[in-house]
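step=encode ok
step=design start
structure_in=
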């Protein structure tokens, strides 16, 4: 069994637990996820199965979109409402001040990952150390926020925004930074991932525990989840060379550069490659040479 399940992760369960449940239901050893969601968070969690695990990074590297409900006047140790209260503050900003601060956080910026995160340090995830009262120095990472749109403004204490951002952006940290810029505190009340690349909420499958048959029809072919990368068709000679780990000439059949999806002339997807500046195609991650097929997919996008 090979392919992706686009799971609608429920709140109150970790991404790792979702993987464990699906691995158990499908009776498959090779199962992983493409981009951690906090236990509080809901929304798109791509689960890779079998050969699809080779492409997990190419899915998680895509841009993300989140809908986040922010509570002002409170900061917690985890950065969301599930954590312990750390700081309280008055909420005195205006709507115009809020809009101005939100626009301030659009663009390229450095962000320090929170201690309560799955990022590893000294062989353990940061949350492992945080739960033991150990707080480690973390290097800032470069992120990019494409857009922050104010969706609802019920009161000065609770607002909902939509954030479009790059891989590696921690929404909890962004929310805390917004609060401090407004001279108060802030924490995440609700968080939902609504998009990864071109994958949208309409494509999702609910997490359940009804056994293998409840998921089989929802498995998506690998290349369908990777459709944001351009397609490159190889002839038989080129396919053989790529399979053997060799480069082939691109010959500028179309103007492409960077990561591409590779296909045989017959139409079968064989994996991911890269076109470099010298117009050479190199294999990156390839499917096993035996005939690859996923279960029939409902996904037509």
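sequence_out=
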């Amino acid at each position: 069994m090979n392919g992706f399940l686009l799971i609608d992760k429920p709140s109150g369960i970790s991404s790792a637990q979702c993987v464990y449940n699906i691995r158990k239901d499908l009776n498959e050893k090779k199962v992983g996820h493409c981009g951690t969601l906090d236990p509080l968070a809901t929304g798109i969690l791509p689960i890779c199965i079998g050969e699809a695990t080779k492409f997990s990074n190419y899915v998680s590297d895509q841009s993300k979109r989140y809908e986040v409900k922010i509570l002002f006047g409170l900061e917690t140790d985890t950065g969301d409402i599930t954590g312990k209260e750390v700081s309280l503050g008055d909420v005195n900003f205006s709507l115009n001040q809020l809009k101005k601060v939100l626009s301030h956080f659009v663009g390229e910026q450095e962000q320090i990952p929170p201690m309560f995160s799955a990022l590893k340090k000294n062989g353990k995830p940061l949350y492992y150390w945080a739960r033991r009262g150990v707080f480690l120095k973390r290097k800032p990472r470069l992120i990019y926020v494409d857009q922050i749109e104010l969706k609802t403004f019920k009161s000065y204490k609770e607002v909902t925004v939509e954030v479009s951002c790059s891989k590696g952006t921690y929404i909890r940290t962004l929310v805390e930074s917004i609060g401090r810029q407004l001279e108060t505190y802030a924490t995440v009340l609700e968080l939902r991932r609504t998009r990864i690349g071109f994958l949208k909420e309409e494509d999702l499958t609910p997490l359940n525990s009804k056994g293998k048959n409840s998921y089989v029809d929802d498995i998506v072919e690998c290349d369908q989840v990777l459709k944001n990368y351009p397609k490159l068709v190889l002839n038989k000679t080129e396919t053989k060379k790529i399979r053997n780990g060799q480069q082939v000439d691109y010959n500028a059949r179309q103007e492409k550069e960077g990561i591409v999806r590779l296909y045989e002339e017959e139409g079968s997807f064989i994996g991911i490659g890269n076109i470099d500046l010298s117009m050479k195609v190199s294999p990156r991650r390839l499917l096993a040479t035996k005939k690859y097929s996923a279960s029939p997919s409902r996904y037509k996008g």
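step=design ok
step=annotate ok -> The chain is about 20% helix and 35% strand.
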